[in-house]
Design goal:
The protein is an alpha/beta fold. It is globular and about 65 Å long. It is 37% helix and 26% strand. The protein is built from eleven helices and 17 strands. The strands form four sheets. An eight-stranded mixed sheet has the order 10-7-6-11-12-13-16-17, sandwiched between helices. Helix 2 links the parallel strand 11 and strand 12. The N and C termini lie far apart (55 Å). It has two domains: 205 residues, Rossmann fold (3-Layer(aba) Sandwich), CATH 3.40.50; 118 residues, Orthogonal Bundle (N-(1-d-carboxylethyl)-l-norvaline Dehydrogenase, domain 2). The protein binds NADP nicotinamide-adenine-dinucleotide phosphate. The site of NADP nicotinamide-adenine-dinucleotide phosphate (NAP) has 29 residues, from helix 1, strand 7, helix 2 and strand 14.
Length: 330
Amino acid sequence: MSLVYAPDSAVAIVADWAWRPNSGIVTRSTGQEIPMAKGWHILGAGAIGCLFADALASSGAPTTLVLRANTPSAPPLQMERNGQTHTRSLSSTNAPDVSPIDHLLVTTKAYDVVSSVNSVRHRLTADATIVLLANGLGYAEDVASLVPGANLYCGTTTEGAFRRAPWHICHAGRGQTLLGAFAGRASTPDWFDDWQALKLECRWTNTIHAALWHKLAINCAINPLTARHRCHNGELANNPVFARQVTELCKEIADVSRAAGFDDIAHSIKGDAFDVIQRTAANRSSMLQDTLAGRSTEIEFITGHLVNRAEQLDIEVPANRDLLEQIRNA
Ligand SMILES: NC(=O)c1ccc[n+]([C@@H]2O[C@H](COP(=O)([O-])OP(=O)(O)OC[C@H]3O[C@@H](n4cnc5c(N)ncnc54)[C@H](OP(=O)(O)O)[C@@H]3O)[C@@H](O)[C@H]2O)c1
């Protein structure tokens, strides 16, 4: 028998099974061994990584956190939701270790994706599955070159989580996670069956590139301006000067979207951006929080990516370019 924790309560319950980390095998108390959900390694054990690690482990998937070199193993994770906190013990490994990795979920910030995948490249099996779940665009192509044999998937999430303290994660807002194949249209992979059973809502899409571009477009219209003006999202609509800037950014974003083949997004971006601003009026964007805390921002993978794409398509985007420079130099 083993002790596990009911995911949505602080109450420990007794289970008649146990799993060996990374084995993909669950051993019942009778000694019977049964194949369980695929084992996942989580690279980027921050707010989103721990949220998914907790959900995967809760569903019975052998789940291992991948920590930087020379980092001590993770203490039990405190996961807080709706005012209740449960504890989850997860196994961990350091990136330079040698045990193989066949299913990798990457949840670092965008600017750490490529270097972090590189740090475990020697451990990836020949046909490893890699799911990239960071914000922004531009790093997946580099990962595809780095590990050409891998089955690469991308995702975007509206789940909200933050680190209250080291190894104490607060799941602040439920959302949805969209996943799809980097290569484009593809049948739903086997591993996704396990993800559909998670306590986090996950959906498969054959148009992940449009979903990622839509998220990028919204982020370009909101996040850098909130960081520039040090304001909550809602002020972008309430302050007429800021609202005109949102409109100007959206016009350029629409031009690039149309030229990049995303006509629907070009058509809807301004309305969608103001809709998000209204719905998240009280929020402080992650870019604002990073700027205030003196941390690196993901600007190069958000506005930076838009500006690069505009250059390739020979489109002028002066408002986005100015904003990019301002955030770079903030
Ligand atoms: N948090 C949210 O609510 C939310 C919502 C939607 C999307 N996102 C996106 O999800 C991504 C992750 O966000 P987050 O809030 O979870 O960030 P986070 O809390 O900063 O977590 C990132 C984690 O990655 C780790 N990491 C970086 N490089 C690594 C390496 N080479 N090896 C091992 N670990 C490494 C960091 O470790 P260190 O602390 O040691 O640097 C940190 O624990 C971002 O792209 C973000 O925009 C977040």
